[in-house]
Amino acid sequence: MNTSEFVTSLTQQGVYFWVDNDKLKIRSPKGVITPEIQADLAAYKTEIINFIREKNIIKNTELVPIIQGINLQTIGHLIGGYIGQENAEDKPPIVDPRIMAQQLIVTFKSLPENYKNPEILQFRQDLQHYFQEYGAKILPWEQATTEFKHDIFFPIINQKKTFKFRGVKAEINAVIDVEIPASWMRKLGILVAENWYYFYSKFILKKREISVSNIARLSSWAEDHAAKYVENPTNTQVIVLTEIDDDFINPDIPYQQKINIGLNTLVRTFSEIVIGVAVDKISILNMNLSDSIFAKNEIETFVLNSLIPKIFVPISPLLLNRFEVGQYQPKESIYAKNLVKLGQELASTGLFPPGFKLDEVIKRKSHRDIVDIIVNGRTGVSYGFVAYAEPPQYFGAKEINITEWESLLPIAGFDSNELRQNAQGRRYLKTSIQGEDVFQQIPDVWLVSSRSGSNKTNLNIASDIIRIGLKEKLYLELPQGIHTELVDIKPSYDIYVMLAISLAAALYAPKLIQDGAPIVHFHGYPAFNWFQANEYCVGVHNPSVPCGTYESGVFNFLGISSLANQAIANISLVSLVEPDHGTNFIAHDMDYLLKRLKTGCAEGQIELGGKHFASLKAKVNN
User: Fold this and answer.
1) Which of 165-174, 228-237, 296-305 is least confident?
2) Which residues have C-beta within 8 Å of that of residue 358, sequence separation ≥ 6?
3) Interval 203-229: pLDDT, tens
């Protein structure tokens, strides 16, 4: 069978294909999928999945530019730990929000009757205008939805009932909804629905897992929010417009309190993104819990640089199956010991508020179950990370000349003008530094990191520190004796960022990392006048992709590499800003970094939240 012709023919007849967690998903008009076609779909499922993935990769590759001498796809391959093979996750990074916008399909959920909030109505209209202006496809609600069926088994009557509803099609990237204040009748309905969900999950589902959308349908039939109409929550983000929360954007309210406010807002609205709207300003909230504020007259910039990147790059954890998993002995690692000290010394700064258990913050069981799935089974949530990069590991010559480069072998899946390897399998990258070609060995990169959800300021060296490696693929080493089925030990969401910073430092600022380097991320910013000689700030004007994502890793890599072209002899510290989400720091020395961060916090020049971001935007040109 010719897979291309087969899929193309069905697509032209209105069949929509997508891949979700290695499963082929299909939606088709009635009568198109005959028994013969159904048999072909089953027989050639693997070939069809591979074809769809390859088609998406080729489509995105055409949009990938070369930045600072390296194709972005090459950077993505390197920091993602791919060995040249193409798969669903191995997609070229897109960093231009205008190109991101052109890939998006958005719909606006129909407004409830008698909805009269004038500020939100006007903002909703403006939002639609700017989406269209930047090239996003806007589908009317009727076209973006189709009829679905959902089966629920009732044990008391021993029958299965089928419920029909209109759901948002899987290809839609975002649904724009509005929040409706609950009436007493609706609150009563919610109480009944939640009790029904508790009964159903305990006595019928028991320990069986179900999707976020199914939880929403079971527990919220008394509520009319967009989430329960979504066919594929992996691809479709729900964005809710609501009145701005003055407490959440208040710079005087502690960030720990804002975490509670933000998380409850997201689960209350069943949404991935919440936009607060007032007469004169806009706020945006997602799982990173930024408290970013924009003036109303900045809506054009807000949509392009803040909202579109968040829709295009959903937050998702890096799953364990992406790593080759092993073990190490943290008590024998000087870098693990350094990491414990780093965290302890940072306790006094207040930059790492303690994490919390979901059941301490979220009261409804259905909401806890939804968040538990979203954060990939994590029972707790914390923000920021601490890590310590080990010195890069080289085998053979660190640099070679052009004659030696010409004798190297190509690598499958990479452009041979950028990346080659020698007979021993060591890879060399052609970089451009100050206008000259430099042929550098790509070192093995290793770092130790706090596990997700741990108390960063009181790390247990025996159970809280994992070791991450980046060679031709990703490696994860867990503390010896730790069993993942018994202990909630998962990699940080920010692994791509940690590895990207470490690899870029090795290639473009080797003195910064030659003896190892501390790396810190928190959800705040330094003021512009905090920086001293040999300290640099980059990334301030980047699109605000969520921190820890694949694209965020690329931006951090580019931030470090940009310093190499500025003829900088010595770098003591680099601040890599992630707009709306916080700051990463890497320094040549742990004591130096601690001293600078403590001084900044004591003098009010470094704080959690977005207070100091405005000074960076006004002063930093990059």
Assistant:
1) 228-237
2) 368, 371, 372, 379, 380, 381
3) 666 655 555 556 565 555 545 566 566
pLDDT digits (tens, 9 = 90+) for 168-182: 888 899 999 998 876
Q: Does one domain contain both 567 and 499?
A: yes
Beta bridge partners of 477: 326, 467
For 21, counting Cβ atoms within 10 Å of its Cβ (0-12 exposed, 13-18 middle, 19+ buried), the class is: exposed
Specify whether 228 is located in the same domain as 352.
no
Amino acid at position 68, single letter: Q
Q: Pick from 258, 282, 312: which residue ends a domain?
A: 312
User: At what angle are helices 72-80 and 495-508 packed, to 10 degrees?
Assistant: 110
- Going by DSSP bridges, is the β-strand pair 399-400/436-441 parallel, antiparallel, or unpaired? antiparallel
DSSP sequence for 326-353: EEE-GGG-HHHHHHHHHHHHHGGGT-S-
Same domain, 374 and 480: yes
CA-CA distance, 429 to 506, in Å (whole number)? 12
Alpha-carbon separation of residue 491 from 315, 450, 454, 466, 495 (angstroms): 14, 8, 10, 7, 7
Does residue 550 form part of some domain?
yes
- My answer on whether 487 and 538 are in the same domain is yes
Say if residue 250 is in the same domain as residue 150: yes
Domain membership of residue 576 as a residue range? 320-393+443-619
591 shares a domain with 454: yes
Burial class (CB in 10 A: 0-12, 13-18, 19+), 3: middle
